[in-house]
Amino acid sequence: MFSSSYEHTIDTKGRLSIPSRFRETLLQQYNSNNITLIVQGGCLLAYPQSVWERLLEQFKSLNPFDTQVLNAQRRFFSKAHDGIEIDGNGRVLVPPALRNQVGLKKEVVLVGSTDKFEIWDKVSWSEYLDGEQENQDKDWSLAAQVLAPTKT
Q1: DSSP label at 133?
Q2: pLDDT tens readout for residues 87-102
C-alpha cells in the first residue's frame, strides 16, 4: 500500500525519481516496475500495472452501448499513458503532455493513496491542502467509520 508524501524534483528532461518506499511497494506488493499515469483532478495518478489492468477489466464489464459509459471511457482512457517503466536509477519519464496538463514544474509532491500514488506540482498541492481545511473533520469522520472495530 502506498502512504506518506515525499517532495522531489523533475529534471529538465522530465525525469522524476520515485521514492524508494514506493518502488519497494511496486515490486513487493504488485510484482512490477511499470506504472500507468493518468490525469485526474489537478494531479497525475500513478497506478501499478496490475491495478490498472483490474480497472480496465471493470470498464469492460460496463454496457458498451451506453452513451454515458462511452463518453467516460473516452475521457478516462485518452488521458492515460501506460507501460511507463521505472529505470535502473528509480526514475520515470513523465511525458510532456501530462506535465503540461497538470502544471508540473520543477518541485513536485508524491502522495501515497492506497493502491496508487499521486504526483502533484508542489504549489498546487499546497493550494489543495489550504482549500481542504474545512473538509478535514469529514475526512476523520469517514476514517472513524472505516476503522471502527466491528461488533461481533
Answers
A1: G
A2: 999 999 999 999 999 9
| Domains of the chain: total | 1
Query: Which CATH number covers residue 42?
Result: 3.40.1550.20
Please report the pLDDT score of residue 145 as a whole number. Answer: 75
**Shortest CA distance to 102 belongs to which of 10, 38, 23, 19?**
38
Range of the domain at 43: 5-123
Strands (E), 10-139: 15-17, 34-40, 43-48, 80-85, 91-93, 107-113, 116-121
User: Model's pTM, two decimal places?
Assistant: 0.85
Query: Helix (H, G, I), strand (E, B), or coil: what is residue 104?
Result: coil
Per the CB < 8 A criterion, the answer to whether 35 and 48 are in contact is yes
Q: 90: phi > 0 → left, psi -120 to 50 → alpha, else beta; which?
A: left
